[in-house]
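Checklist before submission:
- one chain only
- standard amino acids only
- sequence pasted in full

Submission:
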Amino acid sequence: MARCEIVHENFLRRVAAGDLPAGRAPAGPLTSDQAVAAFRAACLTRALDRQSRAMQRAGQGFYTIGSSGHEGMAAVALALRTGDMAFLHYRDAAFQIARAGQVPGQNPTWDMLLSFASSSEDPISGGRHKVLGSKALMIPPQTSTIASHLPKAVGAAYSVGAARRRRPEHALLAEDAVVMCSFGDASANHSSAQGAFNTAGWTSYQSVPLPLLFVCEDNGIGISTKTPKGWIEAGFSARPGLKYFKADGLDLYDTYRVASEAADYVRSRKKPAFLHLRTIRLYGHAGADVPTTYLSREEVEAEEAQDPLLHSVRLLDQAGVMQPAEALEIYKETVDRVARVAAEAVTRPRLKSANGVMASLIPPKRDCRPTNGPTPEARAAVFGGDLKAMEEPQIMSRLINWALTDLMLAHPEIVMMGEDVGRKGGVYGVTQKLTARFGPDRMIDTLLDEQSILGLAIGMAQNGFVPMPEIQFLAYLHNAEDQIRGEAATLPFFSNGQFTNPMVLRIAGLGYQKGFGGHFHNDNSVAVLRDIPGVILAVPSNGADAARMLRESVRLAREEQRVVVFLEPIALYPMRDLHTDKDGGWMRLYPAPDEVIGFGDVGVQGTGTDLAIVTFGNGVYLSNQALPAIEAAGIKTRIVDTRWLSPLPKEALTQAVSGCKHILVVDETRHSGGVAEALMAHFHEAAPDARLARITAEDSFIATGPAYAVTMPSKDGITAAATELCK
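Returned file contents:
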């Protein structure tokens, strides 16, 4: 017999016989009505877990990771307010059900069964995945099993204090809200979780408001690997900046009492707390998991004997709230009702087409207050002497700085965060003066942890801010790429567009930085960004374009709720000259604040029909350097600046090369997995009459010193490739 059926039969038998496990007497502020609500939520949780397995056996359900043994989370839900944002562990059905009982118009039985059945009518994911989540219940959906949602929970908690100082137009959380995030004891060991704990403690240690409640549901095992006894308490009971609370999750009264104390501490002190909740895991990890393959039968049966539902029946009886016979009837009635509702849920429609699945990859647009931008007086007050400097051409880094200034003037919900972005002004000075202009609340110097930087941005975005996080170097993104891939990009997809976390992520990257740092400061791989559905990747090639594209990127985030990565070529930050010393050929005038380059607009320089050089970033600069020699060979050339690398602006690119006999793709990323692969494939399909060639970087990391550029395209290499192609 399956373990879920054994636990079910044991419950029926033991309650009927009055054979209930021993434990402490009920004590604490949990009211009779709350105790009944928590027990009903627990019964529904248990019935849904059993039903999910029955649906899977019948080929009608597709998810069986259950919440049985973690029913104490219902009491945690009751200890919080329904407006407190909750990032839930995947075993927290009891929490969502208990919260649903506090909000009118909710039907968690129907909603969760639709989710089990992958019905397109599932109100949170639209049939895309089985997730806990609800916009009405302030529960963003989570698919993570490794606590990668913890960094953004830190960000959301930080946003509560930030919103009190400057409330965004689209803020969701109340000024006294608490943010809760839950996770398992095994997940607490993950680097993303440890980074979140460290960031929360680091922030709290400096007395920065952070109303965050961590809830660790300690069932003692992660799939098949046991957590050492006492490990969680040893690791968190004396952590600086993090108040430790401990409760017995098998005891509704104890859980509610301690969770209430923890929530009150967090809400009143605006400091993070860690609630260590004892739980057990029933049935194994998921439907296909047989716990007796890695645990002895005695261990499994000992856990089952401590069934929290049995403890709840005892506690309710001892408190005079409900007799065991009545509790048994509630349990049976819930099981029967779930089976009846499931029979209807499995008949509901499911997603059938690629378009249906992909419909929520792109979040919906939102209405924003119109703005005409900052007044001349406001600009004069902020820019000071820089207004005069705008009359002369400038380098890219300075034009980006001015664009950021104008954007922050126009949109007070913009905040920037990252290592050294504030007082130092960034490694390359791109954010200089911005702290003096806008203050440390909007220019946040973070600790050195890319996961926490991106988590801060994601969390703040969920409370109405428009974050502009900075990652110092492209190579550093790889420490934290899952915050974009697994969190930011998936949120609208798994919430059917109901939750979003728009942002503009600025990264300094690409190659050609002379003699500094090798690979870690020259990274010419963007493949990790280009294969994330829904993410926009923008790469400017000169300062004026950078300013215009940055404005469009902010519009995309602010109005269309997109995740935009703005990759700034480090080598072009200081670039002044093009052909000869002091010719100033790569400096540009600062474009007026209302000038933008639209999403998908490509740049076309020249009208030649012999050759189109299609490139981006440093490739545009190098192609311009090569242009005189190419045209001296009689090859009439145009240079096409792709600008937007993901998604590729295919129609605009096709139009840009129209009429050209030859197309040369110049790609500073690597030969394997580089941008040229996609461009060549596109032009092979869209321009079949043109001859194609490409020049790319080698499949290599980048060296330090004189060899810094030898693995990448060069002016001479482009000239040779162009003349060879056009023979």
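Reviewer check: The longest strand covers residues 662-670.
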